[in-house]
Amino acid sequence: MSSLLSVRHYSHELLSHSHDHAQLVFGLSGQLDFEIDGRGSQVLRQTLAVVPGNAQHSCGSRRGSQCLVLDVPQPQWLQQQLGGHADATQRLLEKPASISLNPAQTQLVNWLAASPVHDPVIAQQGAALLLASIASASTLSPSVDSLPLAALDAYIDQHAAHPLQVHDLARLAGLSAARFHVRFLAATGQTPMDYVRGRRLQLARQLLQETHLAIGEIAQRVGYNSQSAFTAALSRHFGRSPRALRQTGH
User: Fold this and answer.
1) Of all helices (H) and strands (E), which one includes residue 79?
2) Which residues lie closer than 8 Å to 185 by C-beta, 6 or more apart?
3) Cβ distance 6 to 69 under 8 Å?
4) 203, 222 in Cβ contact below 8 A?
5) How far is CA 145 from CA 58, 135, 148, 237, in A?
6) Average pLDDT, the chain
């Protein structure tokens, strides 16, 4: 890591890698499609993606995206800089997550992005402020662990070929549809149906790369009656056609 903070521009080119340090990616403009350890999400303005250390992740932006990236230092730095917030920060960095920022956090992100972030004082203090603010907010908000995500993922995969509604998922969590929608958005940064759509497309990519099933059959298996609609959805999500995605798996 050369600097704690950096402003980065992403294009349609898909980047895939891992690194031993954790990373926070804050959306400034555009839409960055993100996948961390097989879980898809999007980084938009006022949201961030949490990338744990050594997590395999891929990202790309079809129309271009700009983000503020915080490369998190080692635990010793967290203890020195964050004090009582260090433990909550380390817990936050252990699992992939998509988080919505509040207005104050968004203002801080925008201010830092417009600042000389390579200045060591601004980078150190800015990174510490961001981490402390997010860790503090995470202890007050419903966590992703409060929802049965493993059961929800299994249910989505099992019923990927069929219509799914929010109330189907809410029933698994023992919540009303309205309450589930609010809790799910707070925990993942995505609406339930956006999550379902992304999960279906991740399954489609897996089938394209690991089987020889016809594209039309895969489309039906993940809930698309129209192959053209399926192709358009994959292209929007991954920036590649079904055939191009299939080729990358062989």
Assistant:
1) helix 75-82
2) 100, 191, 192
3) yes
4) yes
5) 24, 15, 7, 26
6) 87
Packed helices 227-238 and 192-210: angle between N→C axes, nearest 10 degrees: 100
In tens, the pLDDT along 101-140 reads: 888 888 999 999 999 999 999 999 999 999 999 888 765 4
The residue among 164, 61, 77 whose CA lies nearest residue 125 is 77
Residue 58 phi/psi, 5-degree rounding, is -130, 150
The amino acid at residue 8 is R
Cα 237 from Cα 6, distance rounded (Å): 25
Contacting residues for 245 by C-beta, under 8 A, at least 6 apart: 205, 208, 209, 234, 238
pLDDT over 70 at 1, yes or no: no
Q: Which helix (H) or strand (E) holds 249?
A: none
Residue 77 neighbours by CB under 8 Å, 6+ apart? none
CB 46 within 8 A of CB 31: no
With a CB cutoff of 8 Å and minimum separation 6, the contacts of 181 are 166, 170, 191, 192
Question: Which pLDDT tens digit goes with each residue over 65-115?
Answer: 999 999 998 888 999 999 888 888 998 898 888 887 888 888 999 999 999
Whether the pTM exceeds 0.90: the reply is no
32 vs 37, 42, 65, 124, CA distance in Å?
Answer: 16, 6, 6, 26
Cβ–Cβ < 8 Å for 203, 195:
no
